[in-house]
Design goal:
The chain is α+β, with helices and mostly antiparallel strands and 201 residues long. It folds into two domains: 49 residues, no CATH class; 130 residues, Sandwich (Jelly Rolls). 18% of the residues lie in helices and 35% in strands. It contains two helices and nine strands, in the order ααβββββββββ. The protein has a five-stranded antiparallel β-sheet, with no helix packed on it. Strands 1-8-3-6 form a four-stranded antiparallel β-sheet, with no helix packed on it. Keywords: Membrane, Transmembrane, Transmembrane helix.
Length: 201
């Protein structure tokens, strides 16, 4: 008789435990862990405040690896600075203008885009490629009276990029602009916007 009573007690305890567990699942665990509150009790008791939505993870974008650019790549090598580098600035600069230049660079090829500027002329620019990073050398060549076969040039920026914007003051009269190298396997289009004291070549 005592043995039968013990079994009944065990069954009752099991049933009571199941009811309590289900109750806690519905009013506490579901609102706090999953943001689901079918009875509304979880919100009343503050359990829904414990729920944090899973953060949306941004897709991983593979960043292309480029070689390291060194100091010795800047400018021309073993070419004397021409005397015209130190010519005085003109009293008047070229007229202010705005322009847009679009160039298409074949796969594996390079191209130069330059404008003429007087000494201390000012320029604002931005450029963007439509298919990833390009190698670029933003540089200038001095206007010489009798230019040699290999001319002097000064590099302002060498980098790998798909977009760049900035301001520029010409340190000498001459041609200033970009050499772009397309290392991709398809043609790349570059759009350049210019504002300032320059003229297209």
């Amino acid at each position: 008789m005592a043995e039968n009573l013990d079994k009944k007690q065990i069954i009752k305890l099991f049933g009571l435990s199941f009811i309590i567990a289900t109750f806690l699942l519905v009013i506490a665990v579901m609102p706090a862990e999953y943001g689901q509150d079918p009875t509304g009790v979880g919100e009343a008791l503050g359990f829904t405040k414990l729920y944090l939505e899973e953060e949306k993870v941004a897709p991983v974008v593979e960043v292309p690896k480029h070689r390291t650019i060194k100091l010795d790549e800047l400018g021309s090598k073993n070419i004397a600075t021409p005397k015209e580098y130190d010519n005085p600035a003109p009293k008047e600069q070229l007229p202010f203008k705005r322009d847009e230049i679009t160039v298409k660079i074949p796969a594996g090829k390079g191209i130069e885009v330059k404008v003429n500027m007087l000494k201390y002329g000012k320029l604002k620019y931005d450029w963007t490629s439509d298919k990833g990073d390009l190698f670029l050398d933003f540089h200038g060549e001095v206007k010489e009276n009798n230019p040699p076969k290999e001319v002097f040039y000064e590099s302002y920026t060498i980098a790998f990029s798909n977009n760049m914007a900035g301001t520029f003051t010409a340190p000498f009269e001459g041609k200033h602009g970009w050499y772009f190298k397309n290392n991709h396997k398809e043609e790349v289009t570059v759009k350049i916007h210019l504002e300032g004291e320059f003229e297209r070549l």
